[in-house]
Amino acid sequence: MTTDPTDPTDRQGPLHDEHLALGASLTGFGGWLMPLRYTSDLAEHRAVREAAGLFDLSHMGEIEVSGPQAAAALDHALVGNLSAVAPGRARYTMLCAEDGSVLDDLVVYRLAEDRFLVVANAGNAALVARELVARAAAFDAVVADQGEQTALIAVQGPRAEEIVVALVDPADGADATTVREMRYYASSAVSFEVAGERVDALVARTGYTGEDGFELFVPVGVAPLLWRTLLAGGAPLGLTPAGLAARDSLRLEAGMPLYGHELDTTTTPFEAGLGRVVKLDKVSDDGTPVPFVGRDALAARKVSPPSRVLVGLRATGRRPARAGYGVVLPEAGGPARRVGTVTSGAPSPSLGYPIAMAYVSPELSAEGTELGVDVRGRVEPVVVVPLPFYRRPQQS
């Protein structure tokens, strides 16, 4: 995450004026000028865990793939088996290079039998769009970048459902039922009533915080009014605008990877513990294997010993590890030996102690292994723990 808000290349999203009106501190992220925080990182983090947070995700990329062979095109382009996804459902997947390295991690929504929406990370959106165009060229499918026309607002937290349902037109009980009964990793078209006007949205029940929540895809022109309506209606339920800092600490507690930290072009899904998303056994309708970009390299990687493994680290002291810090193995009577690198780290507001994710040597990846992190020249003790660090309480 960059922190220079004065970079003239950073784009302003459709909710930029709303963030200024709320007094947000802004920062550059993925080529966009985004809210880092509105009040305090801790307050915004706790609001999401205890009630709900409102996030502007309009910097994310939205790319539509449609046509008779849209599913086949995505099966070829991505590591997942997208043709097996039912309309109305979604799948987490990845775009990999021929060598198996990760170009981006994605969520793909199947909107209809012949229509998909691919959501990409902000900094990679243009690359993903270009790659999909190239990889779909041999198929009867159309790739259209919808990012300029689409705003994305997320409501995350245990009271998210109440807040989103309250937006539904009171005369349309079916849409309220759709929201309430929507499964995790599903989506549906829903109509909202905003200041007396009908707003058609794609609503998805996915998220990046470890909490229940919804994402609302809407045309950019209605986004500011929808944002203000959500804030006004959700305030009595504890809805709080939340920035990138809270989003990062929430996703870290939930053990969710961030591109550029846990995932990059030096990493395959297997090192990141995400080999399950790679479907090497994809077959077409006639039963023939589906060759996809990166398949051969990923098949070889699956059966080869890993050189590093992504793990969770819990600090036993108070000083947090940060991205880029070295993970070390203390040696009796000698200097500590570097055995890995921290990818993300911060104090955990929910758990009360510092946490981190790191790549380490495989022989040191077992739960309970005691290691250290070099925090500005001082070795801080840490222990390997399972991911995720936090799981939301089960609803009664």
From TrEMBL:
<dbReference type="GO" id="GO:0008483">
    <property type="term" value="F:transaminase activity"/>
</dbReference>
<feature type="domain" description="GCVT N-terminal">
    <location>
        <begin position="15"/>
        <end position="282"/>
    </location>
</feature>
<dbReference type="InterPro" id="IPR029043">
    <property type="entry name" value="GcvT/YgfZ_C"/>
</dbReference>
<dbReference type="Pfam" id="PF08669">
    <property type="entry name" value="GCV_T_C"/>
</dbReference>
<dbReference type="InterPro" id="IPR006222">
    <property type="entry name" value="GCVT_N"/>
</dbReference>
<dbReference type="InterPro" id="IPR022903">
    <property type="entry name" value="GcvT_bac"/>
</dbReference>
<dbReference type="InterPro" id="IPR013977">
    <property type="entry name" value="GcvT_C"/>
</dbReference>
<dbReference type="GO" id="GO:0004047">
    <property type="term" value="F:aminomethyltransferase activity"/>
</dbReference>
<keyword id="KW-0032">Aminotransferase</keyword>
<dbReference type="GO" id="GO:0019464">
    <property type="term" value="P:glycine decarboxylation via glycine cleavage system"/>
</dbReference>
<dbReference type="InterPro" id="IPR027266">
    <property type="entry name" value="TrmE/GcvT-like"/>
</dbReference>
<feature type="domain" description="Aminomethyltransferase C-terminal">
    <location>
        <begin position="308"/>
        <end position="390"/>
    </location>
</feature>
<dbReference type="InterPro" id="IPR006223">
    <property type="entry name" value="GcvT"/>
</dbReference>
<dbReference type="Pfam" id="PF01571">
    <property type="entry name" value="GCV_T"/>
</dbReference>
<protein>
    <recommendedName>
        <fullName>Aminomethyltransferase</fullName>
        <ecNumber>2.1.2.10</ecNumber>
    </recommendedName>
</protein>
<comment type="similarity">
    <text>Belongs to the GcvT family.</text>
</comment>
<comment type="subunit">
    <text>The glycine cleavage system is composed of four proteins: P, T, L and H.</text>
</comment>
<dbReference type="GO" id="GO:0005960">
    <property type="term" value="C:glycine cleavage complex"/>
</dbReference>
<keyword id="KW-0808">Transferase</keyword>
<comment type="function">
    <text>The glycine cleavage system catalyzes the degradation of glycine.</text>
</comment>
<dbReference type="InterPro" id="IPR028896">
    <property type="entry name" value="GcvT/YgfZ/DmdA"/>
</dbReference>
<dbReference type="GO" id="GO:0005829">
    <property type="term" value="C:cytosol"/>
</dbReference>
<feature type="binding site">
    <location>
        <position position="215"/>
    </location>
    <ligand>
        <name>substrate</name>
    </ligand>
</feature>
